[in-house]
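Sorry to interrupt, but I need a hand with the structure work. Leave the record below and I will have a look:
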Amino acid sequence: MGKNFDVAAYKAPTNPLRNGECTAYCWGRAYEVMRGSHNLPTGDAGTWFKAKHGYLTGQIPKATSIGCFTGHVIFIEDYDEDTDMLRFSEANYYAKTDSRFNNGKWEPEKVNTNNTDGLIQEKTFSELKKRTGGGTFQGFIYLV
């Protein structure tokens, strides 16, 4: 069973972003984790890292942060410094060859190995930076 997107954090009027996008997912996930209070941007993913949001930013992974790419954002759930392993969740990320690439839809109910919507994944930081489909890695927004 996938992530439950039928909660206030992921829907209007609480979430001001377009349902189905990576930005709306990260905005909603931050809302859940921070118990409603945050100042994340509401623009396109590529604008988040440099936006005037009031949070510290950097290049070192930390738990409860947003990983920013030029075309995608992800929520960092946890980071193990010893193994360089990130646990993260995201939405609307598919390879460019996938028909769902950038389709603006969350599909947690679909059971297939390529669905990432709301699921916890693990990759090393170096593996994450090399992924294709989300653009160039920019850095992290530290929420706490």
About this structure: Residues 22-33 form the longest helix (12 residues).
